[in-house]
Amino acid sequence: MKFVEFLNSPEKTTVGKIVCVGRNYAEHAKELGNEVPEFPVLFLKPASALIYSGDTIIKPAFSNEMHHEIELVLLVGRDLKDASEEESLAAITAYSIGLDMTLRDVQNVLKKKGEPWTIAKCFDTSAVISKLIKISENPLSPEMNLSLSVNGNLRQSSKLENMIFSPSRLISYISSRMMLEPGDLIYTGTPAGVNKVEPGDILVGKLDELISLEAKVG
Ligand code: ZN
């Protein structure tokens, strides 16, 4: 069983499923040679893959190309099925930042074969998450900047307004394809600048100066 923790609160929430969105920033879709999608591209990670800021990301031996993807993460606070955008927005109770670690070499082979991306995305330690901020304490703004540095060098940086599908549109769409429940996490896609990391690298993610996350590659 995995939990998430909040800034400024001793509360913990049990994590349900992790729904991830692919290709939600046009510049990132381009850098991987993908079309900008008409609907969000969705995949799942198991909650068992979750680790926290300060933990170590372990690269599986069957990959030679593990990429970082920094993302805004949303916490769902109520049951949602076929929800409107308004209902979806009201159901986001907190947010944080996370890393959707990806085995790019494995994913490229799977893509070519037309197979699901699961093996490239589900490995243990592949989902890093920071502490969450409650929307009631600090509302989410499109002006906020999401960034990731590796060993002190800036690799990814984008305002949230560059997302193709907004948080409420994403959640509304996801709820039309699968039920969402309290404790579910949504990884909302990564901006351009994804790249390979190696053992010993230190990854630092930030959402403005509000939240930060640090993880080492092992
Ligand atoms: Zn991602």
Account of the protein in words:
Helix content is 17%, strand content 37%. By secondary structure, the chain is α+β, with helices and mostly antiparallel strands. The chain has a single domain, classed as Fumarylacetoacetase-like, C-terminal domain (Fumarylacetoacetate hydrolase, domain 2), CATH 3.90.850.10. Strands 3, 4, 5, 8, 9, 11, 12 and 15 form an eight-stranded mixed β-sheet that branches. The protein has a five-stranded mixed β-sheet with strand order 6-18-17-13-14, with no helix packed on it. It has a three-stranded antiparallel β-sheet with strand order 10-7-16. β1 and β2 (9-14) form a beta hairpin. α2 crosses α5 (167-177). It starts with a strand and ends with a strand. 40% of the residues are buried. Bound molecules: zinc ion.
